[in-house]
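Page 37, continued from 36.
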């Protein structure tokens, strides 16, 4: 299925206001409520809309520190990559894990209370990940820009 301009408008609105009512969404994208509901349902069914979530404030949850961790593995064999990916996916403090092309094999996005908490996460979890040859951590000083909205 290809997206037309109306689908793109629906997706743009929903990315920023996931709890908008169907009536308000229909009005914003200039559709009848029933046509809007059908389109949203189709976008969900076809996998363009994966899920609806609540974005939480890390400061309110006492995890304001973001750390980006570059991981280099000891090898590139499938079993090494699979073991690493399975283990890292079980660490609750890791929000994202990306397989990279470049100097690092993986980049992790980790949240922590502070540097002491990150030291605990490193000691209890990251240092025990299988296949890791080298690890380098960089602390974010401030988030300048952040969005979850994809360009549509």
């Amino acid at each position: 299925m290809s997206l037309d301009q109306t689908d793109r408008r629906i997706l743009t609105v929903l990315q920023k206001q996931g709890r908008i009512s169907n009536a308000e969404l229909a009005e914003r994208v200039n559709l009848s409520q029933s046509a809007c509901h059908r389109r949203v349902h189709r976008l969900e069914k076809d996998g363009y809309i994966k899920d609806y979530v609540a974005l939480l404030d890390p400061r309110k949850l006492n995890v304001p520190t973001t750390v980006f961790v570059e991981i280099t593995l000891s090898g590139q064999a499938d079993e090494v990559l699979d073991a690493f990916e399975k283990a890292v996916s079980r660490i609750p403090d890791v929000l994202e894990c990306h397989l990279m092309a470049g100097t690092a094999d993986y980049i992790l996005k980790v949240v922590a209370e502070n540097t002491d908490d990150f030291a605990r996460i490193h000691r209890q979890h990251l240092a025990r990940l299988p296949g890791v040859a080298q690890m380098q951590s960089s602390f974010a000083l401030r988030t300048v820009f952040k969005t979850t909205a994809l360009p549509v």
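Residues 5-45 form a domain with the Arc Repressor Mutant, subunit A fold (CATH 1.10.10.10). Flag for discussion at group meeting. The CA atoms of residues 138 and 152 lie 31 Å apart.
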